[in-house]
Amino acid sequence: MNKFMTAVILAGGKNSRMGRNKAFLKIKGKTFIERQIELLRKVFDEIIISANTPSEYEYLDLHVAEDVFPNKGPLGGIYTGLILSNSFYTFMLACDMPFVEVELIKHLKGLTEGYDAVVPKSERGLEPLHAFYSKDCIVPIKKELDLNNLRIISFFPDVRVKTVELDSLASSKNFNNSIKNLNTMEEYERES
């Protein structure tokens, strides 16, 4: 398996519930996206930011890409990330998950062989914005985008998906923290 690995931070959301760009909220002196980049650099050779406003992210000195198909939500961001990625498997991460655990990412990465998607599952359900996807997902995602089926999991029936039950893992408490996303100001204030 190719050792070169890419991560894509999905930062193209409208942030309607938070009222401001979640990527730039701070926890312990660093923005969400800066915290993510610092952690992702421990695992990945390439980090791409998928965003509708590239100029906001220029200071991070990373490749920032606008969606190939605008206004298609996170599924459009995943598609763009897979097209641009220089590796067969790409880790997709929502920018509103500031507590990323490197060990969970490594665990998921270790399960990729033989699958097109490796997706954790928490008590809330599937966590497709903290997951690995292969280049073999590009065509099935494009099919769903063309049909305007924008649910992230809409293409799952057309690919080989490995679901990872977080509660069955030894470090489930830390791992559940890793997939915690902060969508509202109340959630953010509780954590900061």
CATH class: Alpha Beta
**Structural domain tally:** 1
And the CATH topology?
Spore Coat Polysaccharide Biosynthesis Protein SpsA, Chain A
Secondary-structure element series: EEEHEEHEHEEEHEHH
Largest pleated sheet: 8 strands, mixed
Gyration radius, to the nearest Å? 15 Å
Low-pLDDT residue intervals, each spanning 5 or more residues: none
Distance between the termini: 39 Å
User: What helical percentage do the residues reach?
Assistant: 25-40%
Oligomer: single chain
In percent, how much strand structure appears in the residues?
15-25%
Could you give the count of β-strands?
Answer: 10
- The CATH architecture assignment turns out to be Alpha-Beta Complex
Shape: globular
Q: What's the pLDDT, averaged over the residues?
A: 87
Q: What is the count of helical runs? A: 6
Which structural class do you get from the secondary structure elements? alpha/beta
CATH superfamily membership: Spore Coat Polysaccharide Biosynthesis Protein SpsA, Chain A
